[in-house]
UniProtKB/TrEMBL annotation:
Protein name, entry field: 6-phosphogluconolactonase
Keyword 4Fe-4S (UniProt): no
Transmembrane segments: none
A Pfam family annotated for this UniProt entry: Glucosamine_iso
Stored CDD domains: 6PGL
Gene that this polypeptide is encoded by: pgl
C-alpha cells in the first residue's frame, strides 16, 4: 500500500510556503535526474498562493512541463477554468515555454478532451509531481464519490459533477499513480470531515490515490481539527 505522510501546518500561509518548497525540491530533483520537471497542477483555490510563491523562486523554467489534474468543460479564458486561475497566479508570470504548458482541451467536450489528453500524457509518464486538492465530499481532481472509474485509461470524461460545472475531464487514479510524488493540499475547516473520513479509511475518491513513490498531505490546523492529545 502507498505510504501517506500527513504533515500539519500551523496556518494556510505556512501550508502555501511548504507546498512551494516541496514543488521546488521536486523540480530540482527531477531536472537533475531526468533533465526536466513534469508537474501536474491542481485546480480549485487552495494551491493558488503556493503557485504565486513560485514566481520569483527559480529560473530554470525552460525545464518545466505543466499538466493539469482536471479541467472544467468551459470555454477557453472562462475565469472558472482551472487553467485560467493557474495562468493568472503563476504561468503568465514565469517564462515556461508555451509548448511546455499542456492545458486539457476541455472546450472540445468531455469525451474528446479526455481521449486527447490521455494520448498526450501517456508518453509523459511517470509524472514527477502531481498536486491535488480535496473537496468537502472527498473528491479530488474531478473524481467524485459514486463515479465509475474506467480501468486502463489515463483521463476520463465526467458528467453530473456535484461541484459545478457538471461536465469535466479528470486524470484517473491510474495516471496519478504513475508518478514519483503526489502532494495533496488541504486547507480550511470545510475539509475537516472529508480529511477525517479519509484518515479513518473510508472509501472516497481521494482514498483511491496512490503513487509509485510517496504521497504527502499538507493540512492546516483548521482542516485537521483540534490538535490530537494535549
Ligand atoms: C476543481 C478542482 C477540485 C479541487 C477541490 C478543492 O476543479 O474544483 O480540481 O478537485 O481541488 O474541489 O477545491 P478548493 O481548493 O477550491 O477548496
Amino acid at each position: 500500500d502507498t505510504q501517506i505522510d500527513f504533515h500539519l501546518c500551523e496556518s494556510s500561509g505556512q501550508l502555501a510556503r511548504l507546498a512551494a518548497q516541496r514543488i521546488l525540491t521536486s523540480a530540482r530533483r527531477a531536472i537533475t535526474t531526468r533533465g526536466c520537471f513534469r508537474l501536474v497542477l491542481a485546480g480549485g483555490r487552495t494551491p493558488l498562493n503556493a503557485y504565486t510563491l513560485l514566481v520569483d523562486a527559480t529560473s530554470d523554467w525552460d525545464r518545466w512541463h505543466i499538466f493539469f489534474g482536471d479541467e472544467r468543460c468551459l470555454p477557453p479564458g472562462d475565469p472558472e477554468r482551472n487553467s485560467h486561475a493557474a495562468d493568472q497566479h503563476f504561468l503568465s508570470r514565469v517564462s515556461i515555454p508555451a509548448a511546455n504548458i499542456h492545458p486539457i482541451p476541455a472546450e472540445l467536450g468531455a469525451e474528446s478532451a479526455a481521449e486527447a489528453y490521455a494520448e498526450l500524457i501517456a508518453p509523459q509518464l511517470p509524472l514527477d509531481l502531481v498536486l491535488l486538492g480535496l473537496g468537502e465530499d472527498g473528491h479530488t481532481a474531478s473524481l467524485f464519490p459514486g463515479q465509475e472509474i474506467p480501468e486502463g485509461v489515463l483521463a476520463m470524461p465526467v458528467h453530473d459533477a456535484p461541484k459545478p460545472p457538471p461536465d469535466r475531464v479528470s486524470l484517473t487514479p491510474d495516471a496519478i499513480a504513475s508518478s514519483h510524488e503526489v502532494l495533496v493540499l488541504v486547507s480550511g475547516a470545510g475539509k475537516r470531515e472529508a480529511l477525517a473520513q479519509w484518515r479513518s479509511g473510508k472509501d472516497l475518491p481521494i482514498s483511491r490515490i496512490k503513487s509509485d513513490g510517496r504521497v504527502e498531505v499538507l493540512m492546516d490546523v483548521a482542516a485537521a481539527g483540534e490538535p490530537q492529545g494535549c
